[in-house]
Amino acid sequence: MKDILQVKQIHKIYGAKENQVHALRDVTFSVRQGEFIAIVGTSGSGKSTLLNLIGGLDTPTQGQIIIRGHNIAALGRKELTIFRRRNIGFVFQNYSLMPVLNVYDNVALPVMFDRGKHVDHEYICEILKELGIWDKRKRFPNELSGGQQQRTALARALANKPALILADEPTGNLDSATTVEVMGLLKESSRRYNQTILMVTHNEALAQACDRIIRIEDGQIDYTKGGETV
Amino acid sequence: MKNVFRLAFANLRYYKKQTAALFVGILLSAALFTGVGSLFGSGKEAAKENARAEYGDWHYETSCDDPWMEEFENQPEGEGFEVAQYGVETVRKAISEPFAIQYVYGDSGYMDMMGRKLIEGSYPQRQNEIAADAQTLRNLDVPEEIGSTVTLDGETFTVCGILTEMPEKINEIFGDYMQVFVCETLDYGMDGSFVYLKFDESRPVGRQAEAFAETYGADGSEFAVNDGLIGFVGGEGQSISLQEIAQALVNPAYGIPYVWGILNENQAMTEGAVLLALAIFAAFIIYSIFQVSVLKRMAQYSVMQTLGMTEGTAFAMLAAELLMIFIFGYSAGAVLGNGAAALIYRRSGQIFITRNTAIHSGVDTETNAAILSVENLPDAGRFCVNREVIGLGAVFLTAMLLIVSFLLMKKMQKLTLRQMIAGDTGKKKRDRRIYSVKRENLTGILTKRFMFSRKGTFVGVLLSLSVGSVIFLGTVYVTENTRINNELTFKADDGLGSDIQAYEPTDSLKDTIPQEAAEQLHTISSLEEVMPVRYMLGEVFLENGCFQWPNFYTEDDGTGSLDPNQVMMEKYNGRIVQTGEDDYKIKVNIYGYSDAMLESLNDYLLEGEIDPEQMRRENTVIFKTLMDGQGNYDGIDIGTGDAVQVKTPLDTQAEGEVLKFLGSDESYREQELKVAAVVSRPLAKVDSFIGDTGDNCVDLIMTNEQMEKNFGITGYRTISINVKEGADAKAAADEIRSTLSGADGCIVRDYSAQIEAQNLYLNQQIMFFMGISAVLLAISLLHIMNSMQYLVAERSYEFSVLRAMGITDAGLIKMLMKEGLRYGIYSSLAMLLLYSVVQKVLYYFMTHVYLYLHPQGTISVGYVIGMVIMNLALCTGAMVFSATDI
After folding, report:
1. Cβ pair B707, B536 in contact under 8 A
2. pLDDT for residue B770
3. Using CB atoms within 10 A of its CB, is residue B561 exposed (0-12), middle (13-18) or buried (19+)?
4. CA-CA to B787 of 20 to 30 Å: which in A51, B33, B606, B705?
5. Domain span at residue A130?
């Protein structure tokens, strides 16, 4: 199976001179299509920075991030935006749904940025049904439970059939029962749609449910604790 | 409390942009408010000082031959009053021949209060000495020299001193008389003593006068009042109780104009209303900008509240933030505003001086021209910083800031509560349609939803966006109509529509400027326009209830409380005569105008059409109707197409009894003339017969040819003349004088200097109004920019999520532009809606309270379009500009 993501010798430095912070140092790994990977680390270890760099929300100081053969660090601002919406889906800890749109429109939103009227509504219906929120499609985010909001966010991430879904602590705001439920959905999505998912978490137990774990400590992949484990 | 201030200060330092916006908002508002307040205050102060010079520096006068005077002199202090100065005038004798002259001894207090200073010589020491002013000596035909002698009532006096003139307008209070000052010991046994009182002006003198009368047992109702000065120092103007106000407001005969007129002494209400509007505007702007600032930081406040900050502390912190900026902003604004105001006042201070006396009194030529000349514009005096307005403004705005802080604190509470409720119940009716199924773009829906998600905020933003534009449009509307009114009254009421006027000043129909002489004027090359006017006195029959204001004239006011003008009664048997229950005969001025003048009359058209050719052909006339004190023109039920019955003397040179219209029918002709148009004012008036102030007489206006055809009049009473651009008006006047030298008694007067002076005055006034509008607009612009920035900043997180979802920079800017455009459209609609109400109120006040001539019902569309475009551009621009921060 080919690599869908290659992270090559990534460095990320914030600030300058004495205020300089080396957030990531020489991080290298690759991800294959359909893998569900957990990025684990303590708070401040650099895992969210890594996710932001992979998502094109930030640019590396050094190194390459190649998604589906494109080095996103070399893309211009507009190209990157277009690339991102076509290839990357996001799931945030705080859901980040548009409060003024109902569930259906929230899910369709990133697709509409890209394809206008050529939205695959059948596919959206399918994922809404699959994620168990079809009957909530006309509800607004503030009328949903945390779990339902995160399902909506996941549906939105899936809607564009991206190469990669980046999930930043997707269960951080959820109770344990809902956490299990959402994890199940992520895993099921990965399996059913052969979807590659990179999930940042500090919860070791959740990480264990993933196909592979990448441990990060002090901005580096911690090989002493196994580095990348499957 | 120290920590509250520390935190508040830290907030101010951290949120520099917001602090700066608030500071500039307060600075400009304070500058405008305090600057205008000082301009009004300086104008009022100048008017007060002018009144002091014109009427004397006293408030009340009363006879003091009573025993209380001794008590007062022994103990001049009492509870409730403080006499700042008093003076006693003892009238030793009064004679009426050769003029009304009083022999007066005045103590030093009196002389000082009346400004009677010795120019030359000394005060009379001997019984055969007098001192007088130069004017009195001239009238008595006595050389203005010490040692001259004059015989009065058989006694010869030597002039020992020459004094400055008596206060110019004191005769308006005590009637026409002259004074000669005599020595203290001269006594004819007919003394009358009068005390002039000046109270402490730092508190209302009216109440002090009451306390004074009560303390000494003097009869307060006998006090003569210095009407010129009293209004400025809290004297008893016309007072009106709340009950009377309520009654007047429901009575159509009185209404708002009556109440306003009474309360608006010395323009107090007008200026107060302007200042109040500016203060409210300032408070509104501060609220609006600060609200934006606080809402941006709402999350922080809620965190602090979570950490244990009480509501009281939240209020204290908000108030502390505002007050800290306010102290600096208001102080700097007061300095800036007063600095600018001082410059404006130095250049055009005269426009701020309260004018209680109407200057529009018709073209009675010399007197009026003198009043209107630049030299006679009142002395602006020096600029005074109005500490009272600065203080009151500071107190008012501080109170408003505390209220603002309180409201925002409440809003913080309410928001949290509302959010909770919304989260829990979700019962609110919402539009649940799925838009993505039918649309290819959701950004439009997103912006719309964002705008309407909080309707209260949306309405608030719209209101705050539109209020500045509304005030600007309102100011422009008033300015525009003030300009029109000034121009129209200038031409009609002041009679200054032309550079030069030649006229016969007498009250004899015989005296006219011969037609041939008038035609000679066309040969003078420097003249642009020559507009001769023919005149005839007539009487119009108003029958069968046609005259609907039977109490309009004192001759027939129905109460008998007002005496008709005696001269008018004697010469013309009054202006109006009742001949039946609903029938009247009214004296009218009949004018013949040139075609050019008739064209100009279009500016005063109330109904109908002015077509000189048609008037000549059909012998129709223009009916100049009456205007009442509330600006209504419906006193006479005569309109276009109606016929008026006119009676005129057969003899074009009729005199005496004939002009009373009481003679036999053979002396008159009667004819019916059809009305082609109704106008509000005449031009080129003749006021030497029954008078014509422009609004108090009925006039019939026709072409000069009709005057000849109908009445056989060929001579002219007045000729209005305009000189060519750049021509020397003085030289032209001389040439006209020489051309008309054959016309007996004809006076030629050059008004070009007065016209120039008044134009200058009016232009300065308009410039001032426009300046105020510009500052208001600048404040509004700042506010719009700030509000738009807030709208973007408030949703910066949502925008960043949208970016993560893949919206491009161009897409985001397009989306924000759409939103800005929508805000521009909605705020323009709100502006139009609000402004239509404001305009109606302003129109009412201009028409019925300030009696503006022909105010426009609507503002020029250009201004509205301009404001709409500005709104659209600003809202869109500000949104896009704010997007760069995301």
Report:
1. yes
2. 77
3. exposed
4. B33
5. 32-59+81-229
Whether the Cβ atoms of residue A155 and residue A128 lie closer than 8 Å to each other: yes
- pLDDT, residue B386, reads 87
Tell me the two tokens of residue B144. 């203005």
Q: CB neighbours of B390 closer than 8 A, spacing ≥ 6?
A: B34, B37, B38, B334
Q: Does any domain span residue A130?
A: yes
CA B132, B133, B135, B138 dihedral sign is positive
Q: In sequence order, what are the residues at sequence separation of 6 or more whose Cβ sits closer than 8 angstroms to the Cβ of residue B601?
A: B593, B610, B622, B679, B682, B683, B701
> Which CATH number does the domain housing residue A93 bear?
3.40.50.300
Through-space distance between the first and last CA atoms of chain B, rounded to whole angstroms: 36
Pair of tokens at residue A5: 């993501």
Which pair of tokens denotes residue B61? 């006068």
| Dihedral in degrees, nearest 10, Cα atoms B233, B239, B241, B247 | -140
* Residue partners of A79: CB distance under 8 A and separation at least 6: none
Residue indicated by tokens 């749904």:
A97
| Integer Cα distance of B855 and B849 in angstroms | 12
Give me the pLDDT at residue B374, please: 53
A4-39 pLDDT, tens digit per residue, is: 999 999 999 988 877 888 899 999 999 999 999 999
Kindly report the nearest CA distance between residue A47 and chain B, in angstroms: 18
Residues of chain B with pLDDT under 50: 356-365, 417-427
Is the Cβ–Cβ distance between B699 and B590 less than 8 Å?
yes
Q: CA–CA distance from A54 to each of A7, B99, B776 (Å)? A: 8, 108, 51
Q: Is B798 on the interface with A (CB under 8 A)?
A: yes
B806 touches chain A (CB under 8 A): yes
Residue of A nearest to B420 (CA): A142
How big is chain B by its Cα radius of gyration, in Å? Answer: 35
Task: Tell me how close the Cα of A153 comes to any Cα of chain B, in angstroms.
Answer: 11
| DSSP assignment letter at B845 | I
Cis preceding linkage at B550, omega within 30: no
Predicted confidence at residue B428, as pLDDT, reads: 55
DSSP type of residue B684: S
Q: Which residue of A has its CA nearest to B452?
A: A100
Asked if A90's CB is within 8 angstroms of B804's CB, the reply is yes
Whole-angstrom distance, CA of residue B489 vs CA of residue B761: 14
Q: Establish if B420 touches chain A: CB-CB under 8 angstroms.
A: no
pLDDT of residue B875: 85
pLDDT for the residue B548? 86
- A198 is a domain residue: yes
Q: For residue A121, list chain B residues with Cβ-Cβ distance below 8 A.
A: 436-437
CB of A113 within 8 Å of a chain B CB? The answer is yes
Q: Indicate the domain borders of chain B.
A: 1-52+249-359+372-427, 57-225, 429-494+757-886, 535-713
Asked if B160 and B146 count as a contact pair (C-beta separation under 8 A), the reply is: yes
Instruction: Give the pLDDT of residue B422.
Output: 43
pTM for this model (two decimals)? 0.69
Whether A74 is covered by a domain: the verdict is no
Q: Does B423 touch chain A (CB under 8 A)?
A: yes
| Rounded Cα–Cα distance for residues B501 and B716 (Å) | 12
As for how many domains chain A has, the answer is 1
Q: Which residues of A touch B453 (CB under 8 A)?
A: 99-100
Residues A78, B432: C-beta atoms closer than 8 Å:
no
By DSSP bridging, strand B224-225 and strand B60-63 are: antiparallel
What is this model's ipTM?
Answer: 0.76
Whether residues A109 and B436 touch (CB distance < 8 A) is answered with yes
Contact B806 A116 (CB under 8 A): no
